[in-house]
Every structure is written in C-alpha cells, then in structure tokens.
Amino acid sequence: MANLRVSDCLLPDQKSWDVPFLHLIFSEQIVEHIVATPLYPLVREDRLIWKKENNGEYSVRSAYRLCINELLDTSHFKVEGA
Length: 82
Description:
By secondary structure, the protein is mainly α. It folds into 2 domains: about 40 residues, no CATH class; about 35 residues, no CATH class. It is built from 3 helices and no strands.
C-alpha cells in the first residue's frame, strides 16, 4: 500500500477509475471522493508540480512560505508605524 500510485487505481489503458479495485482498499466515503475527481483525457503525462515555486519543486521552505504568506493571519505580528 505504501507504494500505491494513482495509476494503480485506473483501468488499464483507459482514463477511468477502477472502482472495484478502489473498494478493495478504501472506505466507501474515500471511493466517492476519488471517483468525483475528474480525469482529463487530454492530459497524457502525469507529473508532480508545486505551483507555489517557479521551478515547480516542493520544499519545506516553499511550504513554510505558503503558510506564512497566504494561509496564516500574521497581521498581529506587524508593528504599527514601523
């Protein structure tokens, strides 16, 4: 299970979910979420992308920057008049 890939959950040579296989390894609720994820036929190549970096690579630093700049309210850290 640790090495499971999204491609393992697809029907061979098709762009559709292998629902019976999904039911073997996931709960009904998880399967519903997976099946609700659209698979785009025009996408031919899968690749890992981290959109928050120009080079597309994920790092702890880039995740930290995302948290500080976009996800956390840091307004209380700012000093007025400085």
